[in-house]
């Protein structure tokens, strides 16, 4: 009888403790953002938005990611306007990613891209993974 009570109590504590850990993963104390875009021309307004959210959130502002997917990746190489925006993104600590699937589909050589762009193998999957981690998401 004593062993049954011990087992039930241990099981109860494990279940309660685990559910709180999962809730903490989802409810981050920081506001983290990810924007999935099919148009590189959207980077400028996204950076303006990131700047305003950083001011609005204050200490609660976390990470800000931009994931670019689709044919628009063709327009990145040797694009001085886009490179200037990437420098601005870096200064604002906004991480800009391109989708590896799109690079392959449109035969874009990753070496032709600016060095401060990060490549994620699958941009859509990465967006969902970030959403599961509690990121606030927007697709434009």
From TrEMBL:
Task: Tell me which SUPFAM superfamilies the record gives.
Answer: DsrEFH-like
Q: Does the keyword Signal apply?
A: yes
| Domain of life, source organism | Bacteria
Which Pfam families does the entry mention? DsrE
Segment forming the signal sequence: 1-23
Which UniProt keywords are listed? Signal
Q: What is this protein called?
A: Sulfur relay, DsrE/F-like protein
Q: Which organism is it from?
A: Formosa agariphila (strain DSM 15362 / KCTC 12365 / LMG 23005 / KMM 3901 / M-2Alg 35-1)
